[in-house]
Design a protein that fits this description.
elongated, 5-stranded antiparallel beta sheet, 33 strands, 514 residues
């Protein structure tokens, strides 16, 4: 370390400058260390040019003030004293802990803290009886935490993100105040996307991985998608963001309900009263977004921004808050990527598409009943053609999904598989365009990475109107068209055509008004 008229300069063993004081308004005359521990540079008139107390890093001591707008910044680790990612900041009404801009503790919400007045906060200080937040009168504290009497006490933001107060007595440090006191509330306790469960017996954090994730390796640790074709993206604020592929497809991996994220209770939703697709679209279009939490009952959309921390396991198993982690996958360029490798006998046609074919048109009930497919409904069934979207809706309401499967697939598909496709298809024909999922979401649902929504019945009632009109029109035209219809069926049978009796109508008739 060198002290010159320009200030203090610190060099490493190779002579490289590691730190220096900023430019000063006049030459330095002397250096003074006060009995409180404040290092002061003075000019020849003993005026202060620079003080260490005015430039805190991760610690303050008795006699030192932390004014509004100032922050403590953690070290990167216990062995690496460069600036880390946690901050403790004083505002005019509160004190907050943040990680990459995400709040995970507030002074005003801590039950161990006493509020004495509604005055605006000017600064924080610690003394022999505790730590306090004072306003401009310096007499009555706005907030206070009383602690046992101690002559030497420090407040520190640790490299793990906890704000602590400790006193020194004899030869030992005694930790007197720690926040957050729940280990799972610390943002990165289990690494990126790790699942933290609070052990109520030992008050410790137990780390694991969410479903469809496993323990990762490398710089971030934590958990990574079990499907190796997915990776977790970096936020655009990250220094490594430029190394990320721009040709990736965005998906959302469900981590279930009964989970929580540390910042949700301290932040407002980014969107209110929206459906899940709108919440996911918002995240897909935002390079800072790394995941979402969606509250189904209120349509609230919470965003995980700038950094993805650990997920908290919650005891509220029946919660309607669902978590999704944003993932990127390389675009599939080969034709071999079918649904679990299953294809129909017809030239490698995907089973999923074959199951969905009937929902794209009208259906003959007579042919269906003879083929084992088709049920009865007071609205949709006639002796002739049926408006298939309405038939699908009615079978969805009854839970009779196999009634909708192409008879050619008998024994090759399960009720759950057909249910999945029908629910997706019904969501795609919602009368309200805003309720329809985009194709990224549809792909995610088909692949299993995005949860299946329940179709909104209030947005599908138009199918009943269309179905009645379709049935009435087909009955009126039945007599005139009977001859040509029989001729068409005969031609199909002689040319080896399909026996399923499907005919197709326009996309406008299928889905209603756009």
């Amino acid at each position: 370390m060198n002290l010159t008229a320009k200030g203090i300069t610190i060099f490493d063993e190779d002579g490289n400058i590691k730190w220096s004081t900023p430019p000063l308004k006049s030459p330095v005359n002397k250096l003074s260390l006060t009995e409180m521990g404040n290092l002061v540079l003075l000019d020849k008139s003993n005026n202060s040019l620079w003080e260490s107390f005015q430039h805190p890093t991760d610690t303050i001591v008795i006699g030192q003030r932390l004014p509004v707008g100032a922050s403590l910044s953690s070290a990167a680790s216990n062995s690496n004293l460069s600036t880390g990612s946690y901050n403790f900041t004083i505002t005019s009404s509160d004190a907050i802990l943040q990680w990459y801009g995400q709040t995970y503790w507030k002074l005003s919400m801590d039950t161990k803290v006493y509020k004495n007045s509604n005055n605006m906060v000017e600064y924080m200080a610690i003394n022999s009886t505790g730590f306090y937040f004072f306003g401009n009168d310096d007499i009555v504290s706005v907030y206070q935490v009383g602690l046992p009497l101690a002559n030497f006490r420090i407040a520190k933001l640790t490299s793990s993100g906890q704000f602590t107060l400790s006193s020194f007595s004899g030869t030992n440090w005694k930790q007197e105040f720690v926040v957050p006191d729940d280990g799972c509330q610390t943002p990165f306790v289990c690494g990126r996307a790790g699942l933290c469960t609070h052990n109520t017996v030992s008050s410790s954090a137990i780390c694991s991985c969410p479903p469809i994730f496993h323990v990762g390796s490398g710089n971030f640790g934590g958990c990574v998608p079990s499907d190796g074709s997915y990776s977790l993206p970096l936020a655009c604020s990250s220094t490594d963001y430029g190394n990320q592929s721009n040709s990736s497809v965005v998906s959302f991996l469900k981590i279930g309900n009964g989970v929580q994220y540390f910042s949700n209770i301290y932040s407002d939703p980014v969107m209110y009263g929206v459906n899940l697709s709108a919440c996911q679209d918002f995240c897909s279009d935002n390079c800072s977004c790394l995941g979402i939490f969606y509250k189904n009952s209120s349509g609230s959309c919470f965003m995980i921004a700038n950094g993805l921390g650990s997920i908290q396991s919650s005891n509220a198993g029946g919660s309607d808050l669902f978590g999704f982690i944003k993932a990127i996958a390389a675009s599939k360029t080969t034709s071999d990527d079918t649904n679990d490798g299953q294809t129909s006998e017809n030239g490698g046609f995907p089973v999923a598409a074959a199951v969905l074919l009937p929902i794209a048109g009208s259906h003959s009930m007579e042919d269906s009943n003879s083929g084992g497919g088709g049920g009865n409904s007071s609205n949709s069934s006639t002796s002739g053609l049926v408006y298939f979207p309405l038939f699908a809706l009615e079978m969805h309401e009854q839970g009779s999904y196999l009634e909708l499967a192409d008879p050619r697939l008998e024994g090759r598909v399960t009720n759950d598989e057909v249910e999945k496709l029908v629910r997706i298809a019904l969501c795609c024909v919602h009368e309200e365009p805003a309720l329809r999922p985009n194709m990224v979401t549809v792909v995610g649902m088909l692949e299993g990475g995005t949860p299946l929504p329940q179709p909104r019945m209030e947005s599908l009632n138009f199918l009943r109107f269309y179905g009645r009109r379709f049935t009435e029109a087909s009955m009126i035209a039945e007599e005139d068209e009977f001859g040509s219809l029989m001729h068409q069926q005969a031609r199909n049978s002689t040319t080896g055509g399909s026996q399923n009796g499907f005919s197709y109508i326009s996309s406008q008739n299928i889905s209603g008004p756009r």
